[in-house]
Automatic annotation (TrEMBL):
InterPro entries on file: NAD(P)-bd_dom, NAD(P)-bd_dom_sf
Signal peptide: none
Organism of origin: Heterodermia speciosa
Record-linked Pfam families: NAD_binding_10
SUPFAM superfamilies for this protein: NAD(P)-binding Rossmann-fold domains
Domain of life: Eukaryota
Record-annotated NAD(P)-binding domain positions: 7-186
Protein name in the entry: NAD(P)-binding domain-containing protein
Amino acid sequence: MKLIVTGATGLVGSEVIRLALRNPAVTSVVAVARKPVLPPANAGPEADTSKLQSVLVEDWTAPYPESVIQHIKDADACIWALAITPTRSQGMDFAHVTVVCSDYTINGLAIMAALANKPFRFIYTSGVTIERDQTKSLQFLSEYRLMRGRVENAILDYAKQHQALGVEVTVAKPGGIEAPNRTAIISDAMKAMLDAFGHTPTVHLSELAAAMIDQSLNGISKDPLWGEDLVQIGQRVLRKEDYLV
């Protein structure tokens, strides 16, 4: 399987790359980013770092240049982990946040799907608080959560409208993400807030990445993939030695 990964320098994207390089079923990993992506130092001796291709994109809203197209054509799946997080978005120009989170994603999906193998599986990394129902009145981060919800709706609609291209889409919606050297403790207030959504609040980073790789390889099982789904899939496919520690 040829896998495209965006957001490759971020927390989730870098773990996807680490596990993909360790997975023999993944034959090529195309990291699309603004700056060069190197094989992770902690990939381990089982990783085949020769599978990694680093591809640079400067303008994510324009047609990709031929140099990029040559690398991403004939892909089988994309794990899209590129976004501005809710915390980072605060204090930023919301128009810019929207361009990065929405325009980049929709443009990227359209370009990749036209060049990809069939089926083409597109796994979008989102979050448990993101709201697809645009009629809802939200108490916190309303503008951001609704905007990201529109992105989810747009990519799902794209898949329905382009069934002839074999496009399959799902959205991973974890709550908190646990990872080494990252604060995994969730405050009582935050836990109560996440619990209100009725889904598992935390997912280990390796389980999240492994679950999305599994969906890329073996087919999309459902939409959305809530925290408990990601934990179940991740724990099923991960070996103990594959976990990031």
